[in-house]
Write a structure and sequence with these properties.
The chain is of the alpha+beta class. The chain has a twelve-stranded antiparallel sheet, with helices on one face. The chain has a single domain, classed as Clam (outer membrane lipoprotein receptor (LolB), chain A). The protein is built from three helices and twelve strands; from the N terminus they run ββαβββααβββββββ. The protein is 18% helix and 52% strand.
Length: 234
């Protein structure tokens, strides 16, 4: 039996090569196919939810900060509404950052945009690079390269939960800068298990903006309340 060899250990995550496994690793194609199939199976069961988000942006160069607390309501298949509960900080900063983020999310929720930005083999090329254990759960790690320069796509890595075949983490940068003013952006997006679903937990991004310098934006997602599942047909 092969012995565990820990190559990288950061917090609760370890990159494993040669770990005791029930068999050889699947191929990249098998992981991606199972991810897509599991997502298609879960999607009809998520009829809707409400959640509270905490947005925060900080510009290091000018020492300014802004926050916003938002209630989001999602209704399948593509309806999202937002209600701002609290705001602090300069209005121009909130308008340029938070308002654009909400508008972009609503735009990508529409059917045509949603299909064009889903993490599937239609929009990305993938390569399985290894396995990590995060919070006691095995994750397949894949490199993701966008097939187009759509500003809503990214290049980077994704972590796929082995048991649920769901995306648990994404790290990367936009395939195309969303604006001339944004020189570079890196982000980390984490998901949490809510019932049988994996929903957003946090998003942290670091950006270099022309004239304004380094900015940090974060979103914390929580207080999920899932709608009742659809009644079973007789």
């Amino acid at each position: 039996m092969l012995k565990l060899l820990v190559l990288v250990s950061t917090g609760s995550a370890s990159l494993l090569h040669g770990a005791d496994t029930p068999g050889p690793l699947p191929s990249t194609e098998e992981v991606v196919a199972s991810l897509t199939q599991a997502d298609l199976a879960r999607a009809p069961k998520l009829t809707g939810y409400t959640s509270i988000r905490q947005y925060r942006v900080e510009n290091k160069r000018f020492g300014v900060k802004a926050t916003m607390k938002v209630e989001i309501t999602y209704r399948a298949p593509n309806e999202k509404t937002f209600r701002v509960l609290e705001e602090t900080g300069p209005a121009p900063l909130r308008k340029q950052v938070f308002k654009r983020m909400l508008e972009s999310e609503q735009a990508t929720a529409r059917d045509g945009e949603r299909e064009a930005t889903q993490i599937t083999s239609r929009n990305y090329e993938f390569k399985l690079t290894g396995v990590e254990v995060i919070d006691g759960r095995r994750m397949f790690v894949l490199e993701a390269e966008p097939r187009t320069k759509n500003q809503f796509l990214f290049r980077g890595r994704i972590w796929v939960d082995e048991e649920d075949r769901a995306i648990a983490r994404i790290e990367g940068s936009p395939a195309q800068s969303p604006s001339f003013w944004v020189k570079k952006t890196k982000f980390v997006h984490r998901y949490q298990r809510v019932g049988q679903f994996w929903l957003a937990e946090s998003n942290h991004s670091d950006s270099e903006v022309r004239m304004f310098g380094h900015s940090i934006t974060s979103i914390e997602y929580g207080d999920y309340k899932l709608d009742a599942p659809p009644a079973a047909a007789n």
